[in-house]
Amino acid sequence: MHPHFTQRQRVSTPSIGDYQRKRLGEVQRSTIIKERSGLSRFLARLVEKEMLGEVPAFPKLAKKATGTRHKQARLAPQAALSPDEIESVLASLPVFSLRRRTGESFHVQARFIFAYETGLRPETLDKLLAQDVTVSGLHMRAELDKNRWERVLPLSARARAALKSLGYPRAGRAAVR
Prior knowledge:
- The protein is mainly alpha-helical.
- It has two domains: 9-69, no CATH class; 83-165, no CATH class.
- Helix content is 38%, strand content 8%.
- It has six helices and five strands; from the N terminus they run αααββααβββα.
- It has helices spanning 13-24, 29-48, 83-92, 109-118, 122-127, 157-165; strands at residues 96-98, 105-107, 133-134, 137-140, 151-153.
- The strands form two sheets. It has a three-stranded antiparallel beta sheet, with no helix packed on it. A two-stranded antiparallel sheet has the order 1-2.
- Helix 4 (109-118) runs antiparallel to helix 6 (157-165).
- The two termini are 41 Å apart.
C-alpha cells in the first residue's frame, strides 16, 4: 500500500481526497487518473478478501486541476542493439501467436520483420491495405503518414518475403496482419 495509507482504517473518501491533492503537487492530473484506476482495483480486491468493508467513493478531480509536470523526463535510456542482436531477437519471435479471447492466430515474426525493414509504426501497419503494395514499393497514402506526405517507400527483398509469408496479396484491409 502507498505510504499515505499506512493502515486499512485510513482508507476512506477523505484520505483519498487528501492523497489526490498531495499528488497534484507532484504529478499531472492524467497520472492521478491512472493511479485511481489501479487503487480502485486493489481496494476491490481487499473487499473481496474481506480485508476492507467497502471501496470508498473517490472524490472527483476538478477539471481545472492540471497537476504539476515532472521537472525531468523519466524516460528510460534506450538500449543500443547491434544488427546481430536485432536479428537474434527477430529470429526468437514466434511465427504465430493466439488472441486469447477469440482463439485466432496472428502473425508475429513476419509483422516485426516487416516493421523493422520499413521503419513503420504499428498504427501505420494496422492501416495498410493490400493494394498499398505495388511493384515499385509501398504506396504510403497521405492518411497513413504522420506528416501527411504521400509517397512510395521502396521495399527490400526481406520486406517482400515477410509480406509473402503473411499471405499477401489479400484483398481489403491489413496487408501486414
